Structures are given as C-alpha cells and as structure tokens.
Amino acid sequence: MTLEAIRYRAGSLQILNQLLLPHQTAFESITSVQEGWEAIKSMKVRGAPAIAIVGCLSLAVELKNGPQRERDELVTFVCDSLNHLVTARPTAVNMSKAAAELAEFVVQQSKEDNVSTQTLQESVIGWIEEMLEKDVSDNKKIGNFGAQHILSGISQGKVTILTHCNTGSLATAGYGTALGVVRSLHSMGRLARVFCTETRPYNQGARLTAYELVFEEIPATLITDSMVSIAMKEKGISAVVVGADRVVANGDTANKVGTYQLAIGAKHHKIPFYVAAPSTSCDLSLESGREIVIEERPAQELTDINGARIAAPGIDVWNPAFDVTPTSSSQGASSRSWGSSCPRSYRLHSLEG
Ligand code: MRU
C-alpha cells in the first residue's frame, strides 16, 4: 500500500490534513482556489512540490465545476487565481514557477484562432493534471539516481542516511525527493537505517517523516535537531540527503531551517551532503541565496506545543521557517543535487569529479 496525500479525479480534490497526523488520517475536500490557498497557508498541505500541485489542482476543480466563462474572462480568472495562490507561502519556488508557466500557457492558447472557451479550459485543466504524474515520475528518477550515486563507491553492504524535515509522499505527489532516495536504497536492500530529525518547531520529521517510515517499515530512528552532530560523529552516517524549497543559480539552497547546520556538520565530519530536488524547485532568475525571501512564521509555533505554552511568558521569538545553505558551506563534503532535469548549472558543486 502506498501512502497518498492528494486524491484527485476530474472535478474532485481531497487532501490529507497533515495538521492532524500522525494521530488522525482525515481527508478534506478542496473545492475552490480560496480553499486551496487556505490549506497551503495553514500547512494542511506543505512541502514545495505538494504546495504547487494542490494549489494548481484547486484551480482545476474550480474551473471544472464553475460557471462557463467568456474567453477573456477565463484568462483573467486563471491569472488572478494563480497570482493569489502564490501569496500563500513565499519561499518555495514551485508554486510561483508553475503560476508563471501556466499563465503564459493560457495567454498563448487564448490567442490561437478559433479556440473555444471549452477547449481552452480543458487545456488548462490538462496542463495541471500533467503536473501530478510528472512529479511522481521525476521523484522516482531522483530516488534511483540518488541511490545509485550514493552506492557508487560502495560495492557491498548497507548505508546509513541522515535526513531532515519531510520530503516524502506527503510533501510531493508521491514517492518523495530526499525520502525517495531513502525509499530507493531500501527497496534495493542497501539501507541499514535512516536517521530523521524532529524538525523543530513544526515537527515535520517527528510527525510526518516518522509516520511515512513506520508506515513503510523502513528502519528509522528519530533524533532531535540538536543531535545531528553527535549522530554524525557516532552513528556511521554515510550521507546526508535533504530536499529543497528553492535552488538558485549559484547553487545556494533554501530548505527547512536546520539544513544549513546539517551541511556545516557534514563538511566537518567529511560526510557527503546531497540536495535531492526536481527542476520545479530550481530558480535560475535569482543569482544567489541572498535574494530568497525567507518566510517567518508565528511565534506560537515555538512557544506552544499542541496548544500548551512551554516557553516563558514575555520572551521574544524569531521563527524563520527556512534557511539558506550556501553552496560553499557544503564544498569539501562532496555535495550534489539530482534535479530530474536541472541543467548542470543548477547543480550544487560536486567535488567528486
Ligand atoms: O514548511 P514546509 O513543511 O513546507 O517545508 C518543507 C521543506 O522544507 C522540505 O524539505 C522541502 O519543501 C522539500 S519537499 C520535497
């Protein structure tokens, strides 16, 4: 059985409410762009690829079930909806990249002679539906490339991986990016164990990654974020594999806060550090990580756990949801990203050749 977080068929979208995991498995219907936006903003659905897919699918279902629109009205509705969806979360590039491409597509298609409104609408829905299938096949390729690469210098025996946040089926259309690499290693019989971080403050690792790993019976151990250095020192970590929310032109990578310290620790311990990301997470329009907007989330995510205050009243809080790992911080630890179709210039430096 595979874990699924997005259930879609023409005109119908349901998402697994990730806020309730691991205690409850509850799917919720998304019937409009506004509901899609709210699900992303409230983190019922999260993870860079999943944000873009659910955002665009919310538009597909609203189009399918909504009123017939005139051609210009349809183009305006699609573009306005995409502009709105982009505002839900700023750091992951996937939604804004999909929005730019789909907006260009609908404008171009609308200029075709004799294109009917019905055909135009169907082509927009078809464009969105392809995102789902492409993401799963990209992830499987990333998983296989990544696993083969990690195993390339190791002719036999098993490897131990350290990963961060949630990059699996729950963060994508299925299979996962960094967790896809872990899945591939496991299915090849070459994974000894994966260590996953709790991922404070939102606990994507403890709640979601641990849930996926237990669900699939992959040998896994949960650690807190502050244990990564000792794990690198004492637990025979063969490689660190993380996902990405935005990889910019020079290779700087925004990912869940805590990734930067993993890269520094990996460099110190001479452990290979890898970013597993599809080309939908690459943003060549930005030169360096300094230009990436980092989302800051509510203080309550740090001060409270399950609604109960744990922090001393009155303390100031800083809660950046992501950090940027400069490409240089992982050099020396042999790092590489396996973007499914990223051109070479997107890749982080590999010191292996
Ligand atoms: O705040 P989140 O849960 O959306 O952050 C998710 C991450 O940072 C993931 O590592 C990243 O999106 C890659 S998901 C394949």
Automatic annotation (TrEMBL):
<comment type="pathway">
    <text>Amino-acid biosynthesis; L-methionine biosynthesis via salvage pathway; L-methionine from S-methyl-5-thio-alpha-D-ribose 1-phosphate: step 1/6.</text>
</comment>
<feature type="site" description="Transition state stabilizer">
    <location>
        <position position="165"/>
    </location>
</feature>
<keyword id="KW-0963">Cytoplasm</keyword>
<comment type="function">
    <text>Catalyzes the interconversion of methylthioribose-1-phosphate (MTR-1-P) into methylthioribulose-1-phosphate (MTRu-1-P).</text>
</comment>
<keyword id="KW-0486">Methionine biosynthesis</keyword>
<protein>
    <recommendedName>
        <fullName>Methylthioribose-1-phosphate isomerase</fullName>
        <ecNumber>5.3.1.23</ecNumber>
    </recommendedName>
</protein>
<dbReference type="GO" id="GO:0046523">
    <property type="term" value="F:S-methyl-5-thioribose-1-phosphate isomerase activity"/>
</dbReference>
<dbReference type="GO" id="GO:0019509">
    <property type="term" value="P:L-methionine salvage from methylthioadenosine"/>
</dbReference>
<dbReference type="InterPro" id="IPR027363">
    <property type="entry name" value="M1Pi_N"/>
</dbReference>
<keyword id="KW-0028">Amino-acid biosynthesis</keyword>
<dbReference type="InterPro" id="IPR037171">
    <property type="entry name" value="NagB/RpiA_transferase-like"/>
</dbReference>
<dbReference type="InterPro" id="IPR000649">
    <property type="entry name" value="IF-2B-related"/>
</dbReference>
<dbReference type="GO" id="GO:0005737">
    <property type="term" value="C:cytoplasm"/>
</dbReference>
<dbReference type="InterPro" id="IPR042529">
    <property type="entry name" value="IF_2B-like_C"/>
</dbReference>
<keyword id="KW-0539">Nucleus</keyword>
<dbReference type="InterPro" id="IPR005251">
    <property type="entry name" value="IF-M1Pi"/>
</dbReference>
<comment type="similarity">
    <text>Belongs to the eIF-2B alpha/beta/delta subunits family. MtnA subfamily.</text>
</comment>
<feature type="active site" description="Proton donor">
    <location>
        <position position="245"/>
    </location>
</feature>
<dbReference type="Pfam" id="PF01008">
    <property type="entry name" value="IF-2B"/>
</dbReference>
<dbReference type="GO" id="GO:0005634">
    <property type="term" value="C:nucleus"/>
</dbReference>
<dbReference type="InterPro" id="IPR011559">
    <property type="entry name" value="Initiation_fac_2B_a/b/d"/>
</dbReference>
<keyword id="KW-0413">Isomerase</keyword>
